[in-house]
Protein backbone atom coordinates (compact mmCIF):
# COMPACT_ATOMS: atom_id res chain seq x y z
CA UNK A 1 0.00 0.00 0.00
CA UNK A 2 2.86 2.36 0.84
CA UNK A 3 4.50 1.67 -2.54
CA UNK A 4 1.20 2.30 -4.34
CA UNK A 5 0.65 5.57 -2.43
CA UNK A 6 4.23 6.76 -3.16
CA UNK A 7 3.90 5.86 -6.84
CA UNK A 8 0.59 7.73 -7.07
CA UNK A 9 2.12 10.85 -5.56
CA UNK A 10 5.02 10.67 -8.03
CA UNK A 11 2.69 10.22 -10.98
CA UNK A 12 0.47 13.07 -9.76
CA UNK A 13 3.45 15.40 -9.31
CA UNK A 14 4.85 14.48 -12.72
CA UNK A 15 1.45 15.05 -14.32
CA UNK A 16 1.08 18.47 -12.68
CA UNK A 17 4.60 19.40 -13.84
CA UNK A 18 3.87 18.32 -17.42
CA UNK A 19 0.54 20.21 -17.48
CA UNK A 20 2.18 23.36 -16.07
CA UNK A 21 5.04 23.14 -18.58
CA UNK A 22 2.62 22.64 -21.47
CA UNK A 23 0.56 25.63 -20.32
CA UNK A 24 3.64 27.87 -20.19
CA UNK A 25 4.84 26.73 -23.62
CA UNK A 26 1.36 27.23 -25.13
CA UNK A 27 1.05 30.73 -23.69
CA UNK A 28 4.52 31.67 -24.97
CA UNK A 29 3.73 30.30 -28.42
CA UNK A 30 0.46 32.27 -28.56
CA UNK A 31 2.24 35.47 -27.46
CA UNK A 32 4.93 35.12 -30.13
CA UNK A 33 2.32 34.31 -32.77
CA UNK A 34 0.28 37.44 -32.02
CA UNK A 35 3.47 39.54 -31.89
CA UNK A 36 4.57 38.23 -35.30
CA UNK A 37 1.15 38.90 -36.82
CA UNK A 38 1.12 42.46 -35.44
CA UNK A 39 4.64 43.06 -36.78
CA UNK A 40 3.74 41.78 -40.22
CA UNK A 41 0.64 44.00 -40.34
CA UNK A 42 2.84 47.07 -39.82
CA UNK A 43 4.83 46.27 -42.96
CA UNK A 44 3.87 47.21 -46.49
CA UNK A 45 5.30 45.55 -49.57
CA UNK A 46 5.50 47.17 -52.99
CA UNK A 47 5.66 45.06 -56.13
CA UNK A 48 8.14 46.52 -58.61
CA UNK A 49 9.43 44.69 -61.68
CA UNK A 50 8.29 41.37 -60.28
CA UNK A 51 10.08 41.90 -56.95
CA UNK A 52 8.50 42.53 -53.56
CA UNK A 53 10.13 45.51 -51.86
CA UNK A 54 9.47 46.35 -48.24
CA UNK A 55 8.34 49.91 -47.54
CA UNK A 56 8.86 51.60 -44.18
CA UNK A 57 6.62 54.25 -42.66
CA UNK A 58 8.33 57.31 -41.25
CA UNK A 59 7.44 60.69 -39.86
CA UNK A 60 7.18 63.51 -42.43
CA UNK A 61 9.70 65.55 -40.49
CA UNK A 62 12.34 62.90 -41.14
CA UNK A 63 11.91 63.30 -44.91
CA UNK A 64 11.38 67.06 -45.20
CA UNK A 65 14.93 67.93 -46.40
CA UNK A 66 14.98 65.12 -48.97
CA UNK A 67 11.47 65.77 -50.31
CA UNK A 68 11.97 69.54 -50.32
CA UNK A 69 15.19 69.32 -52.32
CA UNK A 70 13.57 66.99 -54.84
CA UNK A 71 10.54 69.30 -55.11
CA UNK A 72 12.77 72.29 -55.85
CA UNK A 73 14.88 70.31 -58.32
CA UNK A 74 11.77 69.05 -60.12
CA UNK A 75 10.34 72.57 -60.37
CA UNK A 76 13.55 73.96 -61.87
CA UNK A 77 13.74 71.16 -64.41
CA UNK A 78 10.16 71.78 -65.55
CA UNK A 79 10.32 75.58 -65.58
CA UNK A 80 13.78 76.04 -67.10
CA UNK A 81 13.96 73.07 -69.51
CA UNK A 82 12.62 74.33 -72.82
CA UNK A 83 12.62 73.14 -76.43
CA UNK A 84 11.48 74.89 -79.61
CA UNK A 85 8.03 73.37 -79.43
CA UNK A 86 4.99 75.25 -78.16
CA UNK A 87 3.33 72.10 -76.77
CA UNK A 88 6.48 71.04 -74.88
CA UNK A 89 6.87 74.52 -73.38
CA UNK A 90 3.23 74.65 -72.26
CA UNK A 91 3.37 71.12 -70.81
CA UNK A 92 6.54 71.81 -68.81
CA UNK A 93 5.41 75.22 -67.56
CA UNK A 94 2.01 73.83 -66.55
CA UNK A 95 3.70 71.13 -64.47
CA UNK A 96 5.95 73.74 -62.89
CA UNK A 97 3.03 76.03 -62.00
CA UNK A 98 1.43 73.24 -59.96
CA UNK A 99 4.52 73.35 -57.74
CA UNK A 100 4.67 77.10 -57.14
CA UNK A 101 2.50 80.14 -56.41
CA UNK A 102 1.74 83.37 -58.28
CA UNK A 103 5.31 84.63 -57.95
CA UNK A 104 6.28 82.09 -60.62
CA UNK A 105 3.13 82.76 -62.66
CA UNK A 106 4.08 86.44 -62.84
CA UNK A 107 7.56 85.52 -64.11
CA UNK A 108 6.01 83.28 -66.76
CA UNK A 109 3.56 85.99 -67.83
CA UNK A 110 6.38 88.56 -68.11
CA UNK A 111 8.53 86.20 -70.21
CA UNK A 112 5.57 85.40 -72.44
CA UNK A 113 4.69 89.10 -72.86
CA UNK A 114 8.30 89.84 -73.82
CA UNK A 115 8.13 87.09 -76.50
CA UNK A 116 10.77 85.00 -74.74
CA UNK A 117 9.10 81.69 -75.59
CA UNK A 118 8.32 82.83 -79.13
CA UNK A 119 12.01 83.59 -79.57
CA UNK A 120 12.93 80.10 -78.42
CA UNK A 121 10.56 78.57 -80.97
CA UNK A 122 11.52 80.83 -83.88
CA UNK A 123 15.26 80.53 -83.14
CA UNK A 124 15.20 76.74 -82.67
CA UNK A 125 16.75 77.17 -79.24
CA UNK A 126 16.85 74.52 -76.52
CA UNK A 127 17.40 75.30 -72.87
CA UNK A 128 18.54 72.75 -70.27
CA UNK A 129 19.35 73.03 -66.59
CA UNK A 130 21.45 71.04 -64.14
CA UNK A 131 20.82 71.64 -60.42
CA UNK A 132 24.13 71.53 -58.56
CA UNK A 133 22.84 71.89 -55.01
CA UNK A 134 19.91 73.05 -52.91
CA UNK A 135 20.30 74.58 -49.46
CA UNK A 136 17.22 74.53 -47.25
CA UNK A 137 16.59 75.73 -43.70
CA UNK A 138 14.02 73.53 -41.95
CA UNK A 139 14.48 75.21 -38.56
CA UNK A 140 11.97 77.92 -39.45
CA UNK A 141 8.63 77.57 -41.26
CA UNK A 142 7.98 78.32 -44.07
CA UNK A 143 11.26 76.73 -45.12
CA UNK A 144 13.68 79.03 -46.92
CA UNK A 145 15.77 77.63 -49.76
CA UNK A 146 18.49 78.64 -52.17
CA UNK A 147 19.13 76.71 -55.37
CA UNK A 148 22.40 76.69 -57.32
CA UNK A 149 22.26 75.48 -60.91
CA UNK A 150 23.75 75.83 -64.37
CA UNK A 151 21.86 76.56 -67.57
CA UNK A 152 22.83 75.66 -71.11
CA UNK A 153 21.20 77.60 -73.94
CA UNK A 154 21.76 75.66 -77.14
CA UNK A 155 21.55 77.66 -80.34
CA UNK A 156 22.26 76.58 -83.90
CA UNK A 157 25.82 77.93 -83.82
CA UNK A 158 26.72 78.10 -80.11
CA UNK A 159 26.07 76.93 -76.57
CA UNK A 160 25.78 79.59 -73.87
CA UNK A 161 26.39 78.58 -70.25
CA UNK A 162 24.83 80.52 -67.39
CA UNK A 163 25.10 80.40 -63.64
CA UNK A 164 21.61 80.49 -62.09
CA UNK A 165 20.93 81.10 -58.39
CA UNK A 166 17.34 81.27 -57.14
CA UNK A 167 15.67 81.53 -53.75
CA UNK A 168 12.23 81.27 -52.16
CA UNK A 169 10.22 79.59 -49.43
CA UNK A 170 8.29 76.35 -49.15
CA UNK A 171 5.01 75.76 -47.38
CA UNK A 172 3.11 72.53 -46.86
CA UNK A 173 0.09 71.74 -49.01
CA UNK A 174 -1.92 68.60 -49.73
CA UNK A 175 -0.24 65.92 -51.81
CA UNK A 176 -1.69 65.16 -55.23
CA UNK A 177 -0.73 63.61 -58.55
CA UNK A 178 0.37 67.05 -59.73
CA UNK A 179 2.23 67.80 -56.49
CA UNK A 180 3.43 64.49 -54.99
CA UNK A 181 5.76 66.07 -52.41
CA UNK A 182 3.09 68.31 -50.87
CA UNK A 183 5.07 71.58 -51.02
CA UNK A 184 4.37 74.92 -52.67
CA UNK A 185 7.14 77.31 -53.70
CA UNK A 186 6.45 80.91 -52.67
CA UNK A 187 8.27 84.22 -53.07
CA UNK A 188 10.37 82.79 -55.87
CA UNK A 189 13.16 85.10 -56.95
CA UNK A 190 16.22 84.92 -59.21
CA UNK A 191 19.31 86.18 -57.40
CA UNK A 192 21.79 85.66 -60.21
CA UNK A 193 21.59 84.70 -63.88
CA UNK A 194 25.11 85.36 -65.12
CA UNK A 195 26.73 84.28 -68.39
CA UNK A 196 29.72 82.01 -67.87
CA UNK A 197 30.86 81.57 -71.45
CA UNK A 198 29.98 80.60 -74.98
CA UNK A 199 31.20 77.59 -76.93
CA UNK A 200 30.89 77.46 -80.71
CA UNK A 201 29.22 74.47 -82.28
CA UNK A 202 30.67 72.73 -85.28
CA UNK A 203 28.55 73.16 -88.39
Automatic annotation (TrEMBL):
Residue spans crossing the bilayer: 12-31
Keywords: Membrane, Transmembrane, Transmembrane helix
Highest taxon, organism lineage: Bacteria
Name of the molecule in the record: Conjugative transposon TraK protein
Organism: Flavobacterium nitrogenifigens
Amino acid sequence: MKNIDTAFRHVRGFTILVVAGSTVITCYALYKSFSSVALMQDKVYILANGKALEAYASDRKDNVPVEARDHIKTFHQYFFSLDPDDKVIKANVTKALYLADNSVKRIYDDLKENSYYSGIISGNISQTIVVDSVKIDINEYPYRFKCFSRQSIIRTTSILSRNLITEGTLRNVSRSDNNPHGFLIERFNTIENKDLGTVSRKP
